[in-house]
Amino acid sequence: MSRQNRSYNLRIRDLPEGEKPREKLRKHGPSALKNYELMAVILGKGTRREGVLELSRRIMAQYGGQAIFTEGDVGKVEKVLGLSPVQACQVVAAFELGRRMFGRHSEVFLRSPEEVFEYAKDMARLRKEHLRGLYLDTRNKLIRDEVITIGTLNESLAHPREIFHPAVEVHAAAIILVHNHPSGDPFPSRDDIELTKQILEASKIMEIEVLDHVIIGSKRYYSLKENTEIWGR
Q1: pTM
Q2: Are 120 and 216 in contact (CB under 8 A)?
Q3: 115, 123, 157, 218: which has the highest count of C-beta atoms within 10 A?
Q4: What is the DSSP letter of 73?
């Protein structure tokens, strides 16, 4: 029996005509398509390693819910998701167009850990740890949502400059850190606590407030500000 890698993921050409994303879009409209199918329509084609459907599923799963809709750094999308320069531009341009046309109807305010959890609870489905920075204005309105790192958190992986650089770019008044635990248990690790301490120290120099660090688990969350003493209450 051959040991060659074989994929059971259907490619678009293998699907019945009525199940192909473009045909579904034409026949039934955009509401009939899943998010990854809409992404497949935008991208048009995959890569040598992944068909467009497989690639689109991975993009929507790996990047983490709302974050991709506000990501404006083409180079980062290209690097993090393993896209070609053209594909990264397509993804960023598509969501920027939607944001410009309809963004005024989708303002998000984050004033409590519960609201952060409701906003980011889709992260519980991710198979790897994702650290996101939620950047807020003086009214706690979300002005940028960015995936900072993918992988187990530690001080070398999530350096303060990676966290504060987007804040400076968008003139954010405050930051909320949020990351997921694929195990489903949101209780913080030692690295989670040490990283948070480091970021809080850096925030004093940057004069940008860190409001909380919320860990997303399975149907529950953990607020480091509410449950630890590192904010110096």
Answers
A1: 0.65
A2: yes
A3: 123
A4: -
Q: How far does Cα 135 stand from its chain's mean position?
A: 13
Beta-sheet pairing, 130-136 with 174-180: antiparallel
Q: How many CA atoms does the CB half-sphere of 119 hold within 13 Å? A: 26
Residue that has been written with the tokens 């209450």 in this structure: 233
User: Which CATH fold topology does 113-227 show?
Assistant: Cytidine Deaminase; domain 2 (3.40.140)
Sequence-distant (6+) residues with CB within 8 A of 69 are 95, 98, 99, 145
Q: Beta strand 209-216 with 174-180: parallel, antiparallel or unpaired? A: parallel
123-164: pLDDT as tens digits: 888 888 889 999 999 999 998 888 888 876 655 457 788 899
3-state SS assignment for residue 50? coil
Q: What angle do CA 22, 24, 26 make, to 5 degrees?
A: 70
Give the gyration radius of the chain's Cα atoms.
19
Enumerate the domain spans of the chain. Answer: 15-104, 113-227
